[in-house]
Design brief:
This is Sec-independent protein translocase protein TatB. It holds the Pfam family TatA_B_E. The chain starts with 5 loop residues before the first helix and ends with a helix. The chain has 115 residues and is mainly α. The chain is built from 4 helices and no strands. The chain has a domain of 35 residues.
Length: 115
C-alpha cells in the first residue's frame, strides 16, 4: 500500500520524540498502534464481507444456470417411458393400426397372389 522504508520510520520517530517528548511518547505510540489495528481489522472485515457476497452471487449464478440447463434437458430429452397413443391402446378393430406387421398371407391376398 504505502511504501514507507526504515529511514522514513526513523525520521518520523525522531520528530515525534522531539514534538511529544520522552514521557508521553510510549502512550502516544500505544494509542496510534491501537488505531492502526482497528483500521486494519475494519478493512479486513469489509474485504471478507465483500468476498462472501461475491461468492454467494457466483453460487446463485451457478445454481441458476444449472436450473436452466436441467429444464432444457427435460424439454430436449424424450420421456423415459414411451406411452402408447389412444389409437394403439384401442386396437385395430376401432380404426387404429396394429403394431404388428401383416402376415405373409395377408400380404399375398392384398397383392392378389395366391398363398
Amino acid at each position: 500500500m504505502f511504501d514507507v522504508g526504515f529511514l522514513e520510520l526513523v525520521v518520523i520517530g525522531l520528530v515525534a520524540l522531539i514534538v511529544i517528548g520522552p514521557e508521553r511518547l510510549p502512550r502516544v505510540a500505544r494509542t496510534a498502534g491501537m488505531w492502526v489495528g482497528r483500521a486494519r481489522r475494519a478493512f479486513t472485515s469489509v474485504k471478507e464481507e465483500i468476498d462472501r457476497e461475491l461468492r454467494a452471487e457466483e453460487l446463485k449464478e451457478i445454481m441458476r444456470k444449472q436450473a436452466d440447463s436441467q429444464s432444457l434437458e427435460r424439454i430436449l430429452e424424450p420421456p423415459a417411458k414411451t406411452h402408447r397413443s389412444e389409437a394403439d391402446s384401442v386396437g385395430p378393430g376401432a380404426g387404429g393400426k396394429s403394431p404388428e406387421p401383416p402376415s405373409t398371407e395377408a400380404r399375398a391376398t392384398e397383392s392378389g397372389d395366391p398363398p
